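Repro:
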Amino acid sequence: MTDSTPRLDHVVLWVRDPVASASFFEKAVGLRPWRVAEYAEGKAPFCSVRINEETILDLAPLPLAERMEVVPGAAASAGHPVHHVCLSLPRDGFDALRSRLEEQGVPVSDLSHDSLGARGKAKRSFYFRDPDGNVFEARHYD
């Protein structure tokens, strides 16, 4: 039997410097980079970071936007704000992420409690920005 449950495969973030963004997501957020060397060598149009085995964030350079006319008006989406992307972590991963961000001087919001998400009410959550201004929320449910 095949699992037909929809899943989030990837989110494309428009960034100024994909290699620097991959480094930020690796060092500050703890995500594993993917295809960075290929991108740096000109063998891939963008690089990515892996959230889990099924989901990645593609780090697309802004000049790529002009070639992204997949539907009318799509190229104009570069820099168009998405409010935020939320990462759900276990409690220890949540605490480790907040500590890494603070150690690297990344501003973080105050903690929120009991905010509603895909799995019900999250015990704690907070927000931060990547170097390109994309907003992320981190939360844990346990």
